[in-house]
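Dock flavin-adenine dinucleotide; give full complex structure.
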Amino acid sequence: MNRRDFFQKTGLGSLALTTGVVSSCTSTTQSQFADKHFHINRGYHQIPKLRLSMDRIVKETVGLRPFRASGPRLDTEQLGNKTIVHNYGHGGSGWSLSWGTGNIARQKVLATPERKIAVLGCGTVGIATARLLQESGCEVTIYTKDVPPNITSNLATGTWSPASRVCDPTVAKPEFRSVWEEATRFSHRRFQLLLGMDDIAAWVEEYSAFDEQPARSGAVAAGGEVYELPGLIPERVRLSQKEHPFKAEYVTRRSNMIFNIPTYLRHHLNDFLMFGGKVKIHEIKKLEDIDALPEKVVVNCMGLGAKPVFNDEELTPVSGQLSCLIPQTEVQYKFNTKGANFIARKDGIYLGSNGIVGNWDTTPSKEQTEKVVTILQKVMSEMRG
Ligand SMILES: Cc1cc2nc3c(=O)[nH]c(=O)nc-3n(C[C@H](O)[C@H](O)[C@H](O)COP(=O)(O)OP(=O)(O)OC[C@H]3O[C@@H](n4cnc5c(N)ncnc54)[C@H](O)[C@@H]3O)c2cc1C
């Protein structure tokens, strides 16, 4: 369709005509209307550029993803007179799967006659599990070493990524796939109910710009998106060169969900307290500490903290560094390219993120920040518009 046809079909022909008549009389009117069809004139998606410089970085963090090659631990074990329901080891997908694996843990708790329940851990997994148990009529106490913001969950990107580093598919049992799918579907439904509530969860546009179509990273054990579940969020759409402002050859767009981490955790923790839940600062150092708790049923949501207590050799950290830029109001999208990505949250624009398997060091590296800033600066400087 040429420009003239477009104006006729959209009914703008008469407006254009009028404008033309007026503009022939006065040149100021023409410049006044020049921006009116800004998008039509440019012909591609207008995406605000991210302002990047090292002096706009206000925070750097390194979080440790709790990775298990066989997938999160979700079994039940009996320790003396205590029933322990495990719910830990979610890798890079703990935010996304929190409600889903929380629901699996809830079903196991409800299969016991007990209704006074202990939840160990106050991360995104522990809080979601505790809320679900309350919704089923349980009286819940959270026992935890730390509360937000001093937990791993506070150091996450905060995007819907239920398959990210969730297992090593060459190690996980085939039946894990259906457990993951059940958890993913449940979580997805739950997040739909949270959208629009104080901005704790939101839909954003996500652009990916690569020089060539990236290979699926699922084969990389602790490094990638292991599974796919089509139909939950819109598929990626490839954009033609004319439709996007990036220099890259292979550009896609899709809508995705993000979680505004600080407000999200506060919201759910407040709900937990409002429904009569209790939070006790209490470190579990050994199994005897669990035995000493008054509750007979205990849900273990201690993330990496479960490793020494349960002697879990499989549980390994995958460290990830994020560098936080001052928020930029007009930048409200998520972006991925080779070696770097960013996500615009309410509390800042988070650049990242890498993944180092087996690394326990949480010291941020200036070089990592500089590397990501340099990659993104180049992308932004090459953008049209
Ligand atoms: C850089 C990075 C980016 C990420 N991005 C995403 C993302 O975009 N989307 C996504 O879905 N996931 C993401 N993740 C993964 C996600 O953050 C984790 O899977 C999730 O935070 C795990 O939650 P959790 O509640 O199990 O653990 P934690 O948040 O670590 O909570 C564990 C809780 O247990 C308590 N605890 C630990 N040890 C003990 C003890 N001995 N006694 C008592 N209490 C104890 C802690 O104090 C804490 O309260 C990311 C992670 C990182 C590091």
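Observed: The CA atoms of residues 142 and 279 lie 5 Å apart.
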